[in-house]
Design brief:
The chain is mainly α. The chain has one domain: AhpD-like (Up-down Bundle). It is built from 6 helices and no strands. Helix 5 runs antiparallel to helix 6. The longest helix has 18 residues.
Length: 111
């Protein structure tokens, strides 16, 4: 999978929906920013939590966007690998399969 292309494609798909449903899009964006803002937990920690949830929900696009955001927030490949370990613990085989996507996304998006 080409993660950069996948995220570009998803962003393109979301543009008309954002325009047609601007109030919901704006509300989601505000919720996103508020939930991931620095607080008792750092943005990096929150992005790693979001990544674990993305794996658990098997949302490929969410995995890509949260890997990218976690990298921006300073997360390392080793930290993401440990997140994958917890996902495997809590989700078994599906956590392992989607966890492999996390590592692939990291390797492509970290540069």
């Amino acid at each position: 999978m080409d993660w950069k292309d996948t995220l570009r494609h998803t962003s393109t798909l979301l543009k008309p929906l954002r325009a047609e449903q601007s109030a919901v899009a704006q509300g989601f964006h505000e919720l996103h920013d508020a939930a991931l803002a620095e607080g008792a937990l750092s943005t990096r920690e929150k992005e790693l939590i979001a990544l674990a949830i993305a794996v658990s929900k098997q949302c490929v696009d969410c995995i890509g966007f949260h890997v990218k955001a976690a990298i921006r927030a300073g997360a390392t490949r080793a930290e993401m690998a440990e997140v994958v370990n917890v996902c495997v613990l809590m989700n078994g085989g599906p956590g392992y399969m989607y966890g492999a996507k996390v590592m692939e996304a990291y390797d492509q998006l970290a540069d």
